[in-house]
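Give me the 3D structure for Class I SAM-dependent methyltransferase.
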Amino acid sequence: MRTFEELIEEAEAADVAGWGFDWLDGRATEERPPWGYSGLLAERMAHAGSALDLDTGGGEVLDLAPVLPPRTAATEAWPPNVERARERLGPRGVRVVETGEGPLPFPGGSYELVTSRHPVRPDWPEIHRVLAPGGSYLAQHVGPASAFELIEHFLGPLPRERRARDPEDEAAAARRAGLRVEELRTARCRMEFFDVGAVVWILRKCVWWVPGFSAARYAGRLRELDRQMRAGRPFVAHSTRHLVLARKPASAD
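Predicted structure for Class I SAM-dependent methyltransferase (253 residues):
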């Protein structure tokens, strides 16, 4: 295996734009939830007349759908991802809109289908507003304490933060916004990291995991992980996910 310094240098130089994780091939693994979100997304997209994909990243997941509705839009807040998404999805006729704080820039009742894979923060009133009557919201959300074994290795115990993103709390918020939650499924998936470069790369990409992360700042913690991995023991964490399927009632009834 390359030296600690070589692994760190490589990971710090690697591109982290977009929402693809191919750089981790052979260096880290993560189990996938049993429901197969990409397949569910593709099926819904093929039968919708209009769709909006929220927090699309670089458009990687949406682009997996073989058929897209005649009118499809996507939103993304991080400028490097916006450009990636436009390059990837523009040729397919998808309008990619850069967004920030505040309401979604679409009229009420605009879309039959709203989707999202790992939304930053689901805004249930806005999702309800942009859905057409009878329209559906299909999404895979990050659940509570996801990857917290890794996060707490750097930050220490985070008992309050572990309670965030509870699926039942999110379902209750969706109902308060006027949506009918038709399905809510949860999963806990094993993650393994095999070299310290994979850890540096994922923390550069998921900047909210360890705010202010840099390899120099956390060199001691990284060396601990490096010694463990060189001894043949991958670092194990667990991601949590929940699948949400909700519907806007077709009428006031």
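The chain has a mean pLDDT of 96. Let me know if you want a second pass.
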